[in-house]
């Protein structure tokens, strides 16, 4: 089986390669051809995480129902090597681990040298069976805009369960309701491999190897993620399909391990030139002394683009701060400085496009930043709608990570007041599912299962008493634990 693939590396490098055979590559590129006009892609950030607790099957499923082009699970590892979807290595951030069963797991709280000495309930100290006892809650603070009534209703999903859900959606349910016209295909999976260095140092768990193993052994991964990429060979000049699988990481060695792993395990299908022919970098302004970060959107432009070209990548996934005027410029109120900063951001995107790179900034949240929500709507905008219009219309980005799928889709569909804004892409009339078994696709940067809000609401009403009790036991930290970790976490994908 030859998988098409998409990778990510430091800060994060992301690569997408569609490899059907030694003579067929890049059939589903991340960025559309020049003849294709379509609305920007909408990537469901941790699912539909504004509406439901992040990284749950229900949140992913709701994102699909709201017409997301991708769902984005963050993968971490359990003690017994099962990949699960949780954003933080500390379970206390979004689960009831501290209060579960009157403190059954409180003895597990500890510090970790691999996590800079921070206290936490580390996910790699828990087996898959133990993780299934926990429930997930909204990542909100007091006075937050997000409804926390669903806290305690959903469990941590495994990567296997996410693949099963997406396969069911694409193969059984989507044909019954009609596939998204703007995609001309089916939604994809935008995976992030989280904290690989931490898991190796703290638990001797190789995240790249675990991911490769689960992909190669899952009975539905070939049909869902790889086989149908062959139909991208037949796309017309005005047609486009999203890559079925995109993989991202903030650590360069993960990219290298995946590259070597795919080359070793599928040597007859994937040659090095093919594997490195396309990709994406997720450039951020973060820094970490323990990780080599060759790419940052701030700093020496020549060095940045040199590093980008060195990795032979297919796109950029920058922190949205890279595309916004600095706080100093905004606070100055200087119109000339603001205009210059916005022009520089536009030139940055144009430069990426001139290198045939897609641009997917993250993350658009509906809350106003001034209300204490890190990564929320910047003060230069009055609303998330205005912020989205800036990315779509002024900067002309290729897609965004969004936590409110409906709003992002609405703004994308409204267009920008000209013929090139967001016309629907021409459909090919084919759903690219199972075709050639020797197809494999994997890409970079940034999916899902759930239930209808109505059915969730029914569950909510029927279990009100149970949930009310659960809410009264919202996870509280041990004296040493710090729940304010959100501030930094929210600034990452």
TrEMBL record:
Keywords carried by this UniProt record: Glycerol metabolism, Hydrolase, Membrane, Signal, Transmembrane, Transmembrane helix
Enzyme class name: hydrolase
Database matches in InterPro entries: GP_PDE_dom, PLC-like_Pdiesterase_TIM-brl
Gene Ontology BP annotations: glycerol metabolic process; lipid metabolic process
Residue spans crossing the bilayer: 440-465
Span of the signal peptide: 1-22
Reaction it catalyzes: a sn-glycero-3-phosphodiester + H2O = an alcohol + sn-glycerol 3-phosphate + H(+)
Enzyme Commission number(s): 3.1.4.46
Pfam families: GDPD
PROSITE patterns: GP_PDE
SUPFAM superfamilies per record: PLC-like phosphodiesterases
Domain GP-PDE span(s) in chain numbering: 40-412
Keyword field contains Hydrolase: yes
Domain of life: Eukaryota
A GO MF term: glycerophosphodiester phosphodiesterase activity
Similarity comment: family membership: Belongs to the glycerophosphoryl diester phosphodiesterase family.
Protein name according to UniProt: glycerophosphodiester phosphodiesterase
Organism: Thalassiosira oceanica (Marine diatom)
Higher taxonomy: Eukaryota, Sar, Stramenopiles, Ochrophyta, Bacillariophyta
């Amino acid at each position: 089986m030859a998988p098409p693939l998409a990778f990510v590396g430091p800060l994060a490098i992301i690569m997408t390669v569609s490899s059907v055979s030694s003579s067929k590559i890049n059939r589903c590129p991340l960025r559309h051809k020049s003849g294709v006009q379509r609305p920007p892609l909408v990537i469901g950030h941790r699912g539909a995480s504004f509406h439901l607790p992040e990284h749950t099957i229900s949140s992913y499923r709701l994102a699909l129902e709201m017409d997301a082009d991708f769902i984005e699970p963050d993968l971490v590892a359990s003690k017994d090597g099962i990949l699960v979807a949780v954003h933080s290595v500390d379970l206390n951030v979004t689960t009831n681990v501290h209060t579960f069963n009157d403190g059954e797991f409180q003895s597990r709280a500890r510090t970790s040298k691999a996590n800079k000495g921070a206290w936490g309930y580390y996910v790699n100290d828990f087996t898959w069976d133990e993780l299934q006892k926990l429930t997930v809650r909204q990542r909100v603070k007091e006075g937050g805009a997000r409804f926390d009534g669903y806290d305690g209703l959903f469990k941590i999903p495994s990567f296997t369960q996410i693949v099963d859900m997406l396969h069911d959606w694409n193969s059984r349910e989507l044909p019954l309701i009609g596939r998204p016209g703007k995609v001309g295909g089916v939604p994809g999976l935008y995976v992030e491999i989280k904290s690989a260095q931490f898991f190796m140092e703290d638990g001797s768990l190789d995240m790249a190897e675990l991911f490769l193993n689960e992909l190669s052994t899952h009975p539905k991964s070939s049909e869902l993620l790889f086989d149908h990429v062959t139909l991208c060979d037949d796309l017309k000049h005005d047609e486009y399909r999203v890559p079925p699988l995109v993989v991202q990481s903030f650590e360069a060695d993960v990219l290298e391990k995946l590259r070597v792993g795919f080359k070793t395990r599928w040597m007859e299908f994937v040659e090095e030139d093919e594997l490195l022919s396309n990709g994406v970098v997720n450039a951020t302004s973060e820094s970490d002394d323990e990780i080599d970060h060759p790419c940052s959107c701030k700093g020496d432009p020549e060095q940045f683009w040199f590093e980008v070209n060195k990795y032979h990548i297919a796109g950029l996934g920058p922190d949205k701060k890279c595309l916004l005027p600095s706080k100093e410029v905004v606070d100055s109120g200087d119109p000339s400085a603001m205009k210059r900063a916005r022009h520089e951001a536009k030139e940055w995107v144009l430069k990426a496009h001139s290198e045939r790179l897609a641009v997917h900034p993250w993350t658009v949240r509906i809350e106003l930043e001034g209300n204490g929500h890190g990564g929320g709507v910047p003060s230069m905008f009055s609303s998330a709608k205005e912020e989205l219009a800036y990315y779509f219309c002024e900067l002309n980005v290729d897609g965004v990570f969004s936590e409110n799928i409906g709003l992002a889709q609405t703004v994308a569909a409204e267009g920008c007041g000209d013929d090139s804004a967001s016309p629907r892409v021409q459909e090919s009339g084919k759903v690219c599912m199972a075709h050639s078994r020797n197809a494999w696709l994997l890409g970079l940067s940034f999916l899902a299962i759930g239930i209808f809000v109505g059915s969730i609401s029914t569950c909510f009403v029927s279990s009100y008493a149970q949930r009310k009790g659960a809410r009264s036991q919202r996870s509280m930290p041990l004296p040493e634990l710090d729940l304010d970790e959100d501030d930094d976490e929210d600034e990452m994908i």
